[in-house]
Amino acid sequence: MKWEEVSNSIRRHICLSSQPVAIRLFEGRKDILNFSSVKYIGRRTNICQMIPMARYSDSTGSVYTFRENIACVFGAACLGLIKTPERFADGSIFMDFAKDKASALRLQQSVATLGKDGKKYEAIMCAPLKATPIEPQAIVTYVSPAQALRLIIASAYHTGESVEASTVGQASVCSSIAKSTLTKKPNLEIPCMGDRVFGYVQDHEMIFSFPAEFAEPLIEGLNATERLASYPYHPYLERFIVMPKIQWETSQEDLSV
What we know:
alpha+beta; about 260 residues; seven-stranded mixed beta sheet
């Protein structure tokens, strides 16, 4: 898979102003050191702060850090950089956002985590997809609702499956990456407060994440549906409505039932 071509195709089809971001988790600390083009962040940081470094860069924004530098326990647990702490697993960390313990636990169960059975990874890399030095595990894009629609249409092309859009507004981008990794399917998320405070995410933006394995069918879906679903969408201002295809119009038979 040529990731620069994937990146360029996504950006062209949905008029994306920023870069799709490649996410890679490393089980060994030495593995990341093989890539001299990736800059080390040796201070306390968050995953939602690392992503815009790659998102708003062309080829020089690839960054990585080790697990001990991640300040956010939500993100670290979601991506298996730590074993999920008990205060996370039992929902008590969410009590500021829930009426009672049962609600907090239910909220926690809606957040995808890779660290339930223990620490899995030592390091994380975020890179512009077009410049990633290694195959990613997941790809993250920040899109408008209209751009998300274009990606949903493309995602459904091969199987007709819906794109999951289940969110509780907590650890959004990290949960989204974990969902892509676990399910091998794309998903939609609403960016959380951390994304907006540390990641410069705008009010109108959503997260569309997908696993690396889904890149090829996504591009095929974008190409195959381009004729009738090209973006940007243009308003139809004529008073007399004509549907793009006759099968899409209500027929006399439809109206007689």
